[in-house]
Design goal:
The chain has 112 residues and is mostly helical. Helices cover 76% and strands 0% of the residues. Helix 2 runs antiparallel to helix 3, helix 2 crosses helix 5 and helix 4 packs antiparallel against helix 5. The chain starts with 6 loop residues before the first helix and ends with a helix.
Length: 112
């Protein structure tokens, strides 16, 4: 059964461009690879191919939207449940994303 997607997550998904969605997904992926010792094979070239293809076809299959929603749900979870990890993750996203996009995420999800 799929998790219920909260309204703020749906709103951010609706508001972001495809390129912004991809940027958030890649920033999350980079954080996972660097800070959480997630194996690179978990993401791999196949995911990159699907993200790139979704940009080309206007996300017709919803890959970017589904991935973005999962990332946003994970961000909310870390912010709410892990006071030690959240500041590190927040700073990593701030460094990886354009300021306006970072602000949209933090304010839209009420993370700080």
């Amino acid at each position: 059964m799929a998790r219920r997607v909260p309204a703020p997550v749906r709103q951010i998904d609706a508001d972001l461009s495809l390129l912004d969605k991809r940027a958030v997904i890649l920033a999350w992926q980079a954080y996972q690879l660097e800070m959480c010792d997630i194996p690179a094979e978990l993401f791999g070239e196949e995911l990159d191919f699907h993200l790139d293809w979704s940009l080309k076809d206007g996300d017709a299959m919803g890959v970017l939207s589904r991935c973005l929603r999962e990332v946003l749900m994970s961000l909310r979870e870390v912010a709410a449940q892990d006071a030690e990890e959240w500041p590190i993750l927040r700073d990593s996203l701030r460094a990886a994303l354009p300021e306006a996009l970072f602000t949209t995420l933090v304010e839209g999800l009420a993370l700080d």
